[in-house]
Design goal:
This protein is mainly alpha-helical and 131 residues long. It has one domain: Four Helix Bundle (Hemerythrin (Met), subunit A). It is built from six helices and two strands. It has a two-stranded antiparallel sheet with strand order 1-2. β1 and β2 form a beta hairpin. It is globular, with a radius of gyration of 15 Å. The protein starts with a helix and ends with a helix.
């Protein structure tokens, strides 16, 4: 699920859409999914309780999918970012919230919201680069 190449690909799509001045809902969406792949590529692999999790999918499957502790994948990633990348949390959470609104509440997104999503993605990347 997580690859820096996928993050870069989504960021390039975000930049292209932003420069077009159209489809601001997809600017927000691609910014969020770029952030998702950036943070997952930073978090994984990691070790917990003597188990190495090489990917988010493995972590989720072993800790949530086949257990009584069902949580959405997004809520699990938010928790991981909060715990392992706390300086990124505010930007990641903002992008998540903006994306959920853009995708599921109202696809009519203002240019200001699209610009904020791009700004949040840039800030998140800056935090990752300072690690």
């Amino acid at each position: 699920m997580a690859s820096k190449d996928h993050a870069i690909h989504n960021e390039e799509a975000c930049n292209f859409l932003l420069s077009s001045g159209r489809f601001n809902d997809w600017v927000v969406t691609t910014a969020f999914y770029s952030a998702l792949h950036y943070v997952c590529s930073e978090i994984f692999p990691f070790e917990q309780h003597s188990i190495t999790f090489d990917s988010f999918e493995r972590y989720y499957r072993l800790n949530f999918k086949n257990t009584g502790n069902r949580k959405s994948k997004h809520s699990v990633i938010i928790s991981l970012v909060n715990a392992q990348l706390p300086t990124c949390n505010i930007f990641y959470r903002s992008l998540y919230d903006q994306c959920m609104k853009a995708r599921y509440a109202n696809y009519k997104v203002s240019t200001n919201i699209a610009l904020k999503a791009k700004k949040d993605l840039d800030a998140l990347k800056l935090q990752l680069n300072q690690r």
